[in-house]
Specification:
With about 110 residues, the protein is mainly alpha-helical. About 75% of the residues lie in helices and about 0% in strands. The chain has one domain. The chain has 4 helices and no strands. The termini are close together.
């Protein structure tokens, strides 16, 4: 699987996980409908399935996924929650993505 495909798969995986956790948050913190648990469960099931599509072993996949998850979570923070990012957010995400790339691009994987 090409590096760009892996990164795109990580991004979709992260959105599925965040959505699956955000919907119950809305129920608990904003008194939204319990029916949101249905798409939340679907989203978390999708997240789990998407993780199985990655070509690397599970531990390496989870380690690399962490860097992308941080970036997607910050994207969510900015564009869904409407909270401006700080330079610390951007710097931390850059460090995490660098670590992810080291893991994904290592020779022999």
């Amino acid at each position: 699987m090409a590096t760009l495909q892996i990164i795109l798969l990580f991004i979709v995986t992260a959105f599925a996980e965040i959505l699956g956790c955000w919907l119950p948050y809305l129920i608990l913190k904003q008194n939204k409908s319990l029916w949101l648990l249905v798409p939340a469960a679907f989203s978390l099931a999708l997240f789990s399935w998407l993780l199985t599509l990655h070509p690397a072993s599970a531990g390496r996949t989870y380690a690399a996924y962490g860097g992308i998850y941080i970036c997607v979570a910050l994207f969510w923070l900015r564009f869904i929650d409407g909270v401006p990012l700080t330079r610390w957010d951007v710097t931390g995400a850059s460090i995490a993505v660098t670590g992810m790339l080291v893991i994904v691009l290592q020779p022999g994987t």
